[in-house]
Amino acid sequence: DIQMTQSPSSLSASVGDRVTITCRASQSISNYLDWYQQKPGKAPKLLIYAASSLQSGVPSRFSGSGSGTDFTLTISSLQPEDFATYYCQQGSNLPLTFGQGTKVEIK
Amino acid sequence: QVQLQQSGPGLVKPSQTLSLTCAISGDSVSTYSASWNWIRQSPSRGLEWLGRTYYRSQWYNDYAVSVKSRITINPDTSKNQFSLQLNSVIPEDTAVYYCVRAVGAGEGYFDYWGQGTLVTVSS
Prior knowledge:
The complex is a heterodimer of chains A (107) and B (123).
Chain A lengths: L3 E4 L2 E4 L5 E7 L7 E6 L6 E5 L3 E2 L7 E6 L2 E6 L9 E6 L6 E2 L3 E5 L1
Parallel strand pairs in A: 2-11
Antiparallel strand pairs in A: 1-3, 3-8, 4-5, 4-9, 5-6, 7-8, 9-10, 9-11
Chain B lengths: L2 E5 L3 E2 L5 E8 L9 E8 L3 E10 L3 E5 L7 E6 L4 E6 L8 E9 L5 E5 L3 E5 L2
Parallel strand pairs in B: 2-11
Antiparallel strand pairs in B: 1-3, 3-8, 4-5, 4-9, 5-6, 7-8, 9-10, 9-11
């Protein structure tokens, strides 16, 4: 199975901050990397697919980059509604696997 | 707009069968451009993909090794839905279960999710 490792596991940030979350795959996954946002009691929501493509309706302050094994999710200016947990997921090989999550908290 | 509506019991006794159904609106379970998945989430295991069904001139299934001996995912074309059965459940199967559509290149990304069902395995 492909292991997905996110860092950091949690972070504290202020509204307006630039936030970067990293995801590393245990083997190359090309650009088959997706990012999700989850708020308490809700299902995950797709933000970015194919490493850098913004899902329809997602604000442009979210962006993704990377290929191979190393990927990044960036929030350019953190908004109050962005405090949540973020997950990466690889769509290269079965079984589909997720990172352990990064919780973004208010500073 | 695709919507996935889950139904099924929230409490299952150990050794019994967990059964959930996911009704699809806005798409077809028989579409060639998506797969229909079950994912669960628990504090101990995180987000865990369990398996999928999809149609490409015939029906296919893929399952996670961790549950392969106990799981069945079936499409129901007459009702445009798909189901999850997990046999011989144990307390560690306690989780929030989601039905999810996957689309796109590779094995796909998850663009539409059901509302989630908390299933507790307890006597």
